[in-house]
Each structure stands twice: as structure tokens, then as C-alpha cells.
Design a protein that fits this description.
By secondary structure, the chain is mostly beta strands. The protein has one domain: Sandwich (Jelly Rolls), CATH 2.60.120. Helix content is 0%, strand content 54%. It has no helices and 15 strands. The strands form two sheets. Strands 1, 3, 4, 6, 11, 12, 13 and 15 form an eight-stranded antiparallel beta sheet that branches. Strand 8 and strand 9 form a beta hairpin. The chain is globular and about 40 Å long. The chain starts with a strand and ends with a strand.
Length: 207
Amino acid sequence: MTEDYQCLDFDSGMPPANTWVPNVKETGVLELVTDQVRSTPNSLHSIAWATPPEVFAPDIAHLTWTSSGNLISSVNLATDAYFRETYGGYANGYVDYLCVTLGGTKACLSYRYPDSDTFSVTFPTLPPPKPFCDFSYKIDYQQWTHIEMSLSNNGVLTINADGTVMACPSGVTVSSGVSSVQIGAESIEPRNWGEVRLDNVVAYIRR
């Protein structure tokens, strides 16, 4: 068994853009901050604002690490996350915060509006691209939560939040291929907005 991995604590700045590719669109914000951190001195601050109805592009503020290769058994992400409650937006809208992709299947931890305090696992690449299963653990706002995500090649996403574990099957077997880890907010139509701080990121691909 081999692993490709990345570790980020943001203490010495942003990661190299050719390794963790930044994507900021519309009025999205992606920056280092010192006001709320899990480990000093910095954390990553990401905001996706709700765009007006006449704007069709989503707000995006995230970093993506991509790796290719076959015989991948799982793509994994662990991070400390500090969520600010999502305000306003459009009915049934949601925001992706953390995503892992294996082959043609992408799985995300998403916030759903107007059901406040509701996080879901979504599979955006599978129809229908909307919240797929609610996460039973109530993730509290304005405090740090340790979150681990693992998408295996049997199509099951396992998520662990402060020791509470849930498995969410996509219903498909995942083929090996290009894999990625995405951290940061992305608003999904109907528009919504969300804000997160991330620290102590560990991403790895297990072969």
C-alpha cells in the first residue's frame, strides 16, 4: 500500500499554487487570517457570498489538490473546521465546504438552507446533484470541529465529525483515475452563502 499526501497548517503562508490550485470567482474570498485559528498563527478563511439572481456563475473560494493514477482505494481528507452560520439565500440552496473526488465521483460536505444547522453529504457528479443524505451529527457553529472524510472505491463516503461517524453510499462503484481534494466554500444554485475557517489539513490518496 502506498500513499500520496499533503499537509497544510497555513503557518508559513498559502501553499504553492501549482500544488493547491486556488479558485476564486465572483465575490468569493480566500485569505489567511489570524483572528480564529486552531493552531497559531494562521488559518484559511473562505467565504462564498450569495450572488443576485441575475448572476449565473456561483461564488467560489477554494483550493484543490489533484493527483492522477490507477488502483486508488480511497481519497481522504482530515481538517479542523470552524463554521459561521449560513445566513439568507435562496430556498433549498446549499454550499459545498469540503469535497473529495475519486474517478468520476465527487462527494462533498454541504450546508443546506433554509434548514439551519443541517449538513448533508452530496454527490454533485451524480443525478440529482442535490443533498443526498443528511448528516445526523449537529455540527456546532463558531467552534472548531475535527472532520474526516474518506471516499472509497466502492462508492461509499465515510465522514467522522468529532468521533460521530456516518457512511453514505453513492450507489456506484468508483473507477480509478484522477482524484482530488477540495477545501473551501462554493455556492451552488439556488444561491446561498457560507463561511468557514480551516486549519491543520491532511489530505492523502491511498493506493
